[in-house]
UniProtKB/TrEMBL annotation:
Role this protein plays: Ferredoxins are iron-sulfur proteins that transfer electrons in a wide variety of metabolic reactions.
Membrane-crossing segments per the record: none
Name under which the protein is recorded: Ferredoxin
PANTHER family: FERREDOXIN
Cofactor(s) listed: [3Fe-4S] cluster
Gene3D superfamilies (UniProt xref): 3.30.70.20
Signal peptide limits: none
Source superkingdom: Bacteria
Keyword Electron transport: yes
A Pfam short name: Fer4_15
The entry's keywords: 3Fe-4S, Electron transport, Iron, Iron-sulfur, Metal-binding, Transport
Length: 64
């Protein structure tokens, strides 16, 4: 699965990083970024949990 994030849409709630801390991090402003472990794709099922947890649908997951 390929992860992409909408940094402009992210409101920094942190739900993704709480749900899947191996995949998502936040900068000093709380804005999301995909961590190296998820940057080249992932098979971690938590990515779906994080996607569902995001209150503004800023996370997109594309199936390989
Ligand atoms: S859950 Fe959504 S709004 Fe919250 S930090 Fe993650 S991407 Fe941003």
């Amino acid at each position: 699965m390929r992860i992409s994030v909408d940094r402009d849409g992210c409101i920094g709630s942190g739900q993704c990083a709480l749900t899947a801390p191996e995949l998502f991090g936040q900068d000093d402003m709380g804005i999301v970024h995909v961590l190296p472990s998820g940057a080249d794709g992932t098979d971690d099922p938590l990515v779906h949990e994080a996607q569902r947890a995001c209150p503004v649908q800023a996370i997109t997951v594309a199936e390989d």
